[in-house]
Design brief:
The structure holds two protein chains of two kinds. Chain A is an all-beta fold. Chain A contains no helices and eleven strands. In chain A, strands 2, 4, 5, 6, 9, 10 and 11 form a seven-stranded mixed beta sheet that branches. A four-stranded antiparallel beta sheet of chain A has the order 1-3-8-7, with no helix packed on it. By secondary structure, chain B is mostly beta strands. Chain B contains no helices and eleven strands. Chain B has strands at about 5, 10-15, 20-25, 35-40, 45-50, 55, 60-65, 70-75, 85-90, 95-100, 100-105. In chain B, strands 2, 4, 5, 6, 9, 10 and 11 form a seven-stranded mixed beta sheet that branches. Chain B has a four-stranded antiparallel beta sheet with strand order 1-3-8-7, with no helix packed on it. Classes of the chains: A mainly beta, B mainly beta. The interface of A and B includes residues 46, 47, 58, 96 and 110 of A.
Chain lengths: ~120, ~110
């Protein structure tokens, strides 16, 4: 069955770079897109980046200068890096799947919490 | 960016009742709206996409309506497992944006 699972460091210091991994199973990254969506504590959801089945990428323009999304198809993993971390980046980070040419998310991972603090 | 506004912020209801949650877009998004359910410790669940298409496996008591800027999620005959947070998301144009959420609580 389709599964996505996020992993990350939990706690990161301000100004550092955050690296998150989304490991997927039950589908191929060359057939589906995967996005990262985040949710600060007690707040709503924010789409931040996507990598599509062909390998192209899209970023939320509000964060674009600090983001990098990539994938390793041999490991079925999607990687997200956010540099110059700020306390406002504290959030639950989710990865989620999109069908080709559809821009909603049909499967989600459980999320990984990232706290930015010194 | 398209701003999505949900109402109400909180909603209290009893099992068996029917409820509606509204979502308003700051500009027309045609039919391209999705609804999700969020519950603690569980993956977010897609309920509806394209405004009114029920995702596979979702009970028929969930329904979506609307187009343009105004959309509604209706849940008929609430079951205990329906209580939680609900979010709308426009999937018409980049960047994809979400509403602020509606908390459906047990009365």
């Amino acid at each position: 069955q389709v599964q996505l699972k996020e992993s990350g460091p939990g706690l990161v210091q301000p100004s550092r770079t955050l690296s998150l991994t989304c490991t997927v199973s039950g589908f191929s990254l060359t057939s589906y897109g995967v996005s990262w969506v985040r949710q600060p504590p007690g707040k709503g959801l924010e789409w931040i980046a996507a990598i599509w089945s062909g390998g192209s990428t899209d970023y939320n323009s509000a964060l674009k200068s600090r983001l990098s999304i990539s994938r390793d198809t041999s490991k079925s993993q999607v990687l997200l890096k956010i540099n110059s971390l700020q306390t406002e980046d504290t959030a639950m980070y989710f990865c989620a799947r999109s069908r080709p040419y559809y821009w909603y998310f049909d499967f989600w991972g459980p999320g990984t919490m990232v706290t930015v603090s010194s | 960016d398209v701003q999505m506004t949900q109402s109400p912020y909180n909603l209290a209801a009893s099992p068996g009742e029917s409820v509606s949650i509204n979502c308003k877009a700051s500009k027309s998004i045609s039919k391209y709206l999705a609804w999700y359910q969020q519950k603690p410790g569980k993956a977010n669940k897609l309920l509806i996409y394209d405004g009114s298409t029920l995702q596979s496996g979702i009970p028929s008591r969930f329904s979506g309506s609307g187009s343009g800027t105004d959309f509604t999620l209706t849940i008929r005959s609430l079951e205990p497992e329906d209580f939680g947070l609900y979010y709308c998301q426009q999937h018409n144009e980049y960047p994809w944006t979400f509403g602020g959420g509606t908390k459906l609580e047990l009365k």
